[in-house]
Amino acid sequence: MRGVEMFRDLQSEATEWRRHLHRYPELDYRVHNTAEFLTEKLSSFGINHIETGIAETGIVAVIEGEGKKGPTIGLRADMDALPILEASNKPWSSTIAGKMHACGHDGHMAMLLGAAKFLAKTRNFNGSVALIFQPAEEDGQGGKRMVQDGIMDRFGISQVFGMHNRPGIAVGKFATCGGPNAASLDEFDIVVKGRGGHAAQPHRTTDPIVVAAQIIVGLQTLVSRSTDPTESLVISVTKLNAGTAYNVIPERAELAGTVRTFLPSLRDFAERQIEALAQGIAQGFGAEIEFKHRRLEPVMLNHADGTNLAIKAACALVGSEFVDDNMRPSMGSEDFAYMLEARPGAYIRIGNGPTASLHHPAYDFNDEAMPYGIGYWVNLVEMALAF
Description:
By secondary structure, the protein is an alpha/beta fold. The protein has two domains: about 5-185 and about 300-385, Aminopeptidase; about 185-295, Alpha-Beta Plaits, CATH 3.30.70. Helices cover about 35% and strands about 25% of the residues. It is built from ten helices and 16 strands. It has helices at about 10-25, 30-45, 105-120, 140-150, 150-155, 210-225, 265-285, 305-320, 335-340, 370-385, and strands at about 50-55, 60-65, 65-80, 125-135, 155-165, 175, 180, 185-195, 195-200, 235-240, 250, 250-260, 290-295, 300, 325, 345-350. The protein has an eight-stranded mixed β-sheet, with helices on both faces. Strand 1 and strand 2 form a beta hairpin. Helix 6 packs antiparallel against helix 7 and helix 8 packs across helix 10 (about 370-385). The longest helix has 22 residues, at about 265-285. The two termini are about 15 Å apart.
């Protein structure tokens, strides 16, 4: 297998691609210029089978190996940026105010482009590689849309793999684990309907702010007193809106939040009990509620064979001492989960060094990680599709 030194020659060019993409971030499915840039680069590598417009702006490019008979594996990179005003002060900072690549998707695309250039030149494998460039990861539905558009059957993909940078892990290191790798994600909205009035006469009102406060506290008991403490459930209230004046008790209060877990049973439990608890508290105060619950991303599950392959590819690149194969799962969510529901495979983290955290205005992808990501993809392909 290939060590990282074989890929350092690609670092400079991949860094140029990455910084170009960083300067011109685009959101959700509206990644038209990004897709055009990627398509042009893929074509320049001699890749002839490129399909665009999947899930609106997604791309799948297929590279056939020297031994054309064999399976096809998919490698996925996300394309979209975030609605954040950049504060990294880098020379290649976003040129579009209020939009930036604050999650490293620019680096993910550049690493997969680097691997595409290498693989299109060497083709030292059987079967084919499908390079999946996916829009709208931050929206949480781009991966689902690509699966619904039939990419797995259409391109005959038998396994699929993803990779994401992680600040706090040293450059040159990798981390993953089998089984649950990222949590499911659901969202809820609760509207508390009370009776407003003068703040000096609270006894003549049904104060929705007090009810909302009790609901917020009560929701935490679903975690601390109603679920097994060895199982993971996170209920976070992230929005609270009520009132417009100092001396007026409002008619309504609105709150919203997220639910994250690794277990489908806890996902069902939370959906039922959040509504039941809110209804019970509201009724006790003489108020009413409206409740909405949306299931978004499922638990992302790494498959055993795919995880073992990912670990072997990373170890071959950097050595086993730089690969954490027992990473603690993340309570964050990832829409690559939809692809791992459709096909077996695995998701791995690549070190980004001591940078600002993901989704932070000062974040920037670490270009020193570039040859490690490129090399990981190449090793994975040549191991999975060995002659």
